[in-house]
């Protein structure tokens, strides 16, 4: 077993698409998806851009206001996740700050909960 200190991962600041106070940390990669940690400092923004693949953002801590193709803002917090499909324009904002896990790639998210690894039950 290994323990990964998420706060200690190297971070890369991102300012593409008008993003502000935004950094990412590579966590892992599979043949089909990348796993990254996202941090938005208070007042941060991930500017509107199209998803390059299916994208799942799981909020671990803080607040997020997310929007998709319709541009309607939706507030989410810890224990909630946003899913954007390939090509869908999307944006994420925070007032107080945000830590999230993002899985981006060829991921089947049509019916969460239906694909449980029976070996773990």
From TrEMBL:
Q: Identify the residues that the record assigns to the Cupin type-2 domain, covering every copy.
A: 37-96
Coiled-coil positions are none
Lineage here is: Bacteria, Bacillati, Actinomycetota, Actinomycetes, Propionibacteriales
Q: What is this protein called?
A: Cupin domain-containing protein
């Amino acid at each position: 077993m290994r323990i990964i200190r998420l706060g200690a991962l190297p971070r890369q600041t991102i300012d593409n698409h008008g993003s502000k106070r935004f950094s990412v940390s590579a966590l892992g990669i599979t043949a089909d998806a990348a796993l990254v940690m996202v941090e938005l400092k208070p007042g941060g923004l991930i500017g509107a851009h199209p998803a390059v693949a299916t994208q799942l953002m799981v909020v671990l801590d803080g607040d997020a206001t997310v929007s998709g193709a319709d541009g309607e803002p939706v507030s989410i917090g810890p224990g909630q996740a946003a899913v954007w499909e390939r090509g869908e324009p999307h944006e994420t904002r925070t007032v107080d700050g945000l830590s999230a896990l993002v899985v981006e790639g060829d991921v089947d998210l049509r019916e969460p909960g239906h694909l449980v690894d029976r070996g773990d039950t």
